[in-house]
Fold:
Amino acid sequence: MARRALITGITGQDGSYLAEHLLDQGYDVWGLVRGQANPRVSRVRKLLQDVQLVRGDLLDQGSLISAVERVQPDEVYNLGAISFVPMSWEQAELTAEVTGMGVLRMLEAIRVCSGITSSRAAGSGQIRFYQASSSEMFGQVRETPQNERTPFHPRSPYGVAKAYGHFLTQNYRESYGMFAVSGILFNHESPRRGAEFVTRKVSLGAARIKLGLASELRLGNLSARRDWGYAGDYVQAMRLMLQADAPEDYVIGTGRTQSVRELVVAAFEAAGLDWERYVVADQALHRPAEVDLLCADPKKARVQLGWEPSVPFEDLVAMMVESDIKLLSDGGDPDQDSSWP
Ligand code: NAP
Ligand code: GDD
Structure:
């Protein structure tokens, strides 16, 4: 019988790629969607016609229990979150509730539905749980590159909420014997990336300037460095983690790091433009506390899971710029739900 997966965050970038990947692998895929009339559901329906939807919200414990009861999943991928770091300063409490406490609610839904108690541990055939942890937890990094043993020093309410979810996942594994793991994923991008994140802001900005739709691009800290990979590669690592013999956490990244300035140079070069004529550095876009440098050591995932990233940084940036030039040339609106390539 096909394995059943339940994905929270199905309307987001990773949810879409993970759903496609699991469908390819023969899974029955269910996506949790929130809201009475969530406008982003239409793009899931359009792009992922074989995914079944179930209503639920990470803020609502009962809805998660109902979703698990209805779907009877073999695997749960918890990708739902408030994921935009600047928003976590503006709505710190909501971020804690969704990105942090949401993990507790999802784990509790699995525990309750599986009949696991302090005296009755998880047995074979249990639901396997994946938590979307983040390199943002490393924050002000203690060492470079960062691996599974690098201590955390989060620099945003988002990073703090993710650290809570990370430790809680570990705790449910240790307390109840649950197959619960965290993937500590470094930044991963694609043509489906939200327009608020820097890679997509830059690819859209370069595309708009190329087509005469804009004359400048305002950015914040150009010196910050990130380890950027392709989202399509990273969702494969999520599935591999849940197929492993034992539940363990893994760092997922490329092992290379580039600055935002290098990202801009690559994107404008891909569009055939001189970036210095158009990019304006704006102090107002700097963050209250910055993560200056992220760079993964993904050795454990390579050795134990056989996972490798397949898209180099320059190809990723070119892919995003080309996709946005095409989208805008065809009259598409990146803020509209139907625009996913
Ligand atoms: P994304 O595009 O921002 O998607 C976030 C998803 O969370 C959306 O589907 C959103 O659904 C859902 N969500 C928000 N509030 C919710 C709630 N109250 N209940 C249920 N779902 C809710 O994020 P992404 O880039 O795909 O990332 C997926 C996960 O990986 C996130 O947890 C993120 O923090 C984490 N992560 C991402 C990266 C990265 O570089 N992309 C790296 C490390 C970790 P709506 O449509 O309803 O808003
Ligand atoms: N968004 C944005 N907009 N970022 C900018 C800008 C700008 O105009 N200018 C410079 N930056 C810098 C930010 O200060 C940050 O250092 C870097 O670009 C990356 O910003 P984002 O693309 O917003 O991503 P992030 O690193 O903060 O967070 C993403 O990656 C995390 C994993 O490390 C998100 O996907 C998180 O959800 C994820 O956990």
User: Anything to note?
Assistant: The radius of gyration is 20 Å. The chain has two domains: 4-188+230-252, 195-226+257-294+312-337. Residues 92-114 form the longest helix (23 residues).
